[in-house]
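Good morning,

Attaching, inline, the backbone tokens for the sequence recovery test we're adding to the shared suite. The designed sequence is right after.
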């Protein structure tokens, strides 16, 4: 069994889903471009919510049936680990990837909150 292939396929599976979620959040923020402060704050909340969902998925992945994961489907039959070890291997791999993307989303959320605070400060200093 090739561990790097397993990790690459897990990254593909999770990054594809997170990419679509990020695209949705970005489109929502662009739609509110007329109200940049509201766009940044709502984007931050959505990013933090997504990070929370990813943390929950990461915590549940070791007990979720490995046969019901996209990673198991992406693996060729000859690449799949033996059933005795598959739950632990696939669950742990997905847990690590989910938590990595949760950190990415949380970092982006904090960046949006920070940008919103800076924008509010600028608005307060230069308000007429």
């Amino acid at each position: 069994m090739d561990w790097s292939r397993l990790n690459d396929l897990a990254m593909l599976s999770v990054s594809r889903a997170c990419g679509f979620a990020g695209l949705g959040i970005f489109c929502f923020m662009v739609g509110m471009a007329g109200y940049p402060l509201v766009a940044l704050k709502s984007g931050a909340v959505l990013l933090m919510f997504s990070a929370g969902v990813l943390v929950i998925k990461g915590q549940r992945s070791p007990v979720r049936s490995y046969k019901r994961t996209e990673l198991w489907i992406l693996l060729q039959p000859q690449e799949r680990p033996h059933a005795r070890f598959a739950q632990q291997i696939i669950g742990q791999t997905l847990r690590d990837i989910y938590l990595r993307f949760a950190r990415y989303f949380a970092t982006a959320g904090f960046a949006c909150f920070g940008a919103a605070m800076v924008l509010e400060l600028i608005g307060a200093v230069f308000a007429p």
